[in-house]
Amino acid sequence: MKTLLVGYKAQDLFEADRRGERRPASWLEGDITCHTLDIYHCHAIENSSCGVKAVCSPHLPKDDWDLVKFKTGPKLMSGELSLDLLQEIHLLHPRRFELEFVGRERDRNDLLAKIKDDPDRVRDFSAVWPASVPGGQKLMLTSFPGCFCHRRVDDGGLALAEVVARELSDSTPFNSSALKPFSILDMGCGCGLVGFLVASSLSSSRQAPGTNAAAPHESTIRLVMVDSHARAVEAASLNAEKLGIPAEVILSDNGTPAQMDCSFDVFVGNPPYYSDYRIADIFLETAQRALKPGGVCYTVCKNADGLEPVQRRYFPEVEIIRRRGYAVLKSVKN
Ligand SMILES: C[S@@+](CC[C@H](N)C(=O)[O-])C[C@H]1O[C@@H](n2cnc3c(N)ncnc32)[C@H](O)[C@@H]1O
Predict the structure, then answer these.
(1) One domain, residues 15 and 157
(2) 132 shares a domain with 33
């Protein structure tokens, strides 16, 4: 029997035995694959030794599934992502489907009612929306459910992009039409909001009068984007293509590969702040490793009090720049 699990995490695949010891859940029988959208959750399942195969991809793996089990609920994912995944499950035509809904019966019924009337209608859940920094071009970005941020600009990301774009265009070594190659690392890129706005604005400010903005950009700006979420990587790759801004987009929950160490002029990151700044710490460790000496690290958060001590672990000096009710933390690598 081939089973696909959707929406499950490593901890869902274990239970306590009579002595309270953790063991793989008794319902895990047969050939089981667990789909994850985030490579972090995929690694957690692989490392848990529960006998379940893990796969991380933006869409559900196509196969001849006997059973698809879907775990969802308002606290686990957005309603739109739930609907999108339900639609993908429907299109896989599994022999059997089970829904494990975590939440109120009423919410479960609301979710199922949305697809009940016309289950074969295939909806497009992607969104296209504009973003720009002052003086820069308007960029149209595409996003998908599950990817940050979907359908709208995130104010924190926008504040970060605005500060970095302004600082780079004011700084002669960066905007100089002597056009030294310049490299940007956008960690936790989501659909690419920050990296594309900064690269596009820098490209315009480096442009020699009367020349095409795209041409110098291609030859002198290197943009690398990293995210742990498969749909963020999918969206950022699509946006790079649609915007004509070349970018290397990497799926990773552990920063950039070692061969990229000491190779970036600028690091930008709008890390998530759950899990007691553990993820912000991974971002800043990557920034310290990946930047060239003299390279500049910019991060953003609502309140600098929590992030500043984490940034100081990696960079001795932290300057705080306020924008849009957010704090952008700037540090230079020695
Ligand atoms: C607050 S969002 C910022 C997205 C985008 N930069 C923006 O400002 O709109 C944080 C992003 O970090 C990603 N992320 C979380 N943990 C990560 C990790 N360990 N490595 C890389 N990216 C991670 C999330 O998937 C999410 O896309």
Answers:
(1) no
(2) no
136 & 158 share domain: yes
Digit-coded pLDDT (tens) for 132-181 = 999 899 999 999 999 998 999 999 999 999 999 999 988 766 655 556 78
Are residues 137 and 109 part of one domain? no
Are 195 and 172 members of one domain? yes
Say how far apart CA 310 and CA 77 lie, in whole Å. 28
Centre of ligand 1 to C-alpha 270, Å, is: 7
Could you tell me which residues come within 8 angstroms of residue 172 by beta carbon, excluding any fewer than 6 positions away? none
> Per residue in 51-101, pLDDT tens?
999 999 999 999 999 999 999 999 999 999 999 999 999 999 999 999 999
**Based on the structure, what is the number of domains in the chain?**
2
Distance 139 CA to ligand 1 centre (A): 20
Question: Environment class of residue 153 by beta-carbon count within 10 Å: exposed (0-12), middle (13-18) or buried (19+)?
Answer: middle
Beta strands in the chain (DSSP E): 2-6, 14-16, 22-24, 31-36, 53-56, 67-72, 96-101, 127-131, 139-143, 182-187, 221-227, 248-251, 264-269, 291-301, 319-323, 326-332
Pocket of ligand 1 (CB under 6 A): 40, 148-149, 154, 157, 187-190, 193-194, 226-229, 232, 253, 270-272, 279, 282
- Pair (67, 105) in one structural domain: yes
Give me the pLDDT at residue 178, please.
55
Q: Is residue 122 part of a domain?
A: no
Find out whether 198 and 137 touch, Cβ atoms under 8 Å: no
**Whole-prediction pTM value?**
0.94
CA 192 to chain centre: 8
